[in-house]
């Protein structure tokens, strides 16, 4: 199945590493122009070098703290000046922040909501009118399986991600008459920079063995790759998924008890 995204422009938050970067690579390979958004200019530059030349798509980078409303607005304007349009929004920014309920302060709650929920609200709201005008748009919200089946001591992440799932359904209903399709992808255990950080803290010496151990409790028997996640995102961004909206797809090897 050939996915073609020639002429489309995507903006990906958290785009310099892990899942965001893998999605960017897949979209570029399929012909899309991609705006990678993240905080660290150095890491962004490395990502641009790695992704450029993978396909017809052009890659540009934009340093932005998506927790700040003004920064998102400025970055969106910069992307529009660079590419002239935004067809695909991938709201991917965010790392896991969890703790016992009584340990989660108001400041932690607010920071998590700003990073994972309000950043998605603000960026999507900016892109929405020109998607409506062209009657074509895709919004992909990257969440986690805790949004559907939250565990104890999983706040604030599970709560902010559950709010992102509700946002997805609301936007899908509003976008449908304008051919703006909105879907959520839920991360299970996917190899990422967070895995690498856990490995560094573990004191173990064999990264492959560490990843294999992490995958022991996954029904498929292993953790997933960022590329496997990106394949599903790329499908949802394309015309092949033209009748798919308001869905919430687990990419987790059947870890979640909830479909």
Describe this protein's structure.
With 259 residues, the chain is α/β, with parallel strands linked by helices. The chain folds into two domains: 9-190 and 225-250, Rossmann fold, CATH 3.40.50.720; 192-224, no CATH class. 45% of the residues lie in helices and 17% in strands. The strands form two sheets. It has a seven-stranded parallel beta sheet with strand order 3-2-1-4-6-8-9, with helices on both faces. It has a two-stranded antiparallel sheet with strand order 5-7. Helix 1 packs across helix 8, helix 3 (69-83) packs parallel to helix 4 (106-134) and helix 4 packs parallel to helix 5. The radius of gyration is 18 Å and the shape is globular. The chain starts with 8 loop residues before the first strand and ends in an 8-residue tail after the last strand.
| Helix/strand order | EHEHEHEEHEEHEHHHE
CATH class assignment of the largest domain? Alpha Beta
As for the number of domains, it is 2
Low-confidence stretches: none
Strand percentage lies at: 15-25%
Which bin fits the share of residues in helices?
Answer: 40-55%
Q: What is the residue-averaged pLDDT?
A: 96
N- to C-terminal distance: 25 Å
Layout of secondary structure:
Layout: E1 9-13, H1 18-29, E2 33-38, H2 41-51, E3 59-63, H3 69-83, E4 88-91, E5 98-99, H4 106-134, E6 137-144, E7 155-156, H5 157-175, E8 180-187, H6 193-202, H7 207-214, H8 226-237, E9 248-251
Parallel strand pairs: 1-2, 1-4, 2-3, 4-6, 6-8, 8-9
Antiparallel strand pairs: 5-7
Helix pairs in contact: 1-8, 3-4, 4-5
